[in-house]
Amino acid sequence: EDKVVQSPLSLVVHEGDTVTLNCSYEVTNFRSLLWYKQEKKAPTFLFMLTSSGIEKKSGRLSSILDKKELFSILNITATQTGDSAVYLCAVGTSTYKYIFGTGTRLKVLA
Amino acid sequence: EPEVTQTPSHQVTQMGQEVILRCVPISNHLYFYWYRQILGQKVEFLVSFYNNEISEKSEIFDDQFSVERPDGSNFTLKIRSTKLEDSAMYFCASRLWVVPNTGELFFGEGSRLTVL
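Predict the joint structure of the above. Result:
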């Protein structure tokens, strides 16, 4: 059975801290790994990763994929209260579905 | 910026009633999805749709559920006889056809369904 596991389930940090969120997966026919941020309602897209070892970066956020060890990390540096959200990892397969993990709930305290 | 739109934003219904959730995907997208998220739980795949037919469905998507693209823009999810456990946020998503079968999902704001 295809599986996507995220850790930690929740995290509380102070503004300015750096956090690392983890996503490991076991799926058949991997195609891509996507990170989303979910605040109130709809998940908003952060990154898509398809190749190992290539870091994707957007401002204070960065992500990298390891297809040999079957995991990805999402780093957030100099966290701000606006980073508080649930961060979702989803894996796309060669069929038509994307499988989501349970998410990591991040709370950044002022 | 193009977006996926969903209606209604919230629907309250009695158990056993039929509901139809509507979605307008981004206009040039070709793959459409329904996902659901029960409060506090993970986003779960229901069904994917391409070229006017279901591409894949999960075990959640039983005979009570159906999808349709009645015209060139709308994509609907129908639940024939709602149960209490159908209460959830239902997200529509769409994706542009990209070779080789990767690409980000764009999500709508969701339709919250409450079954009493």
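The two ends of chain A are 41 Å apart (CA to CA).
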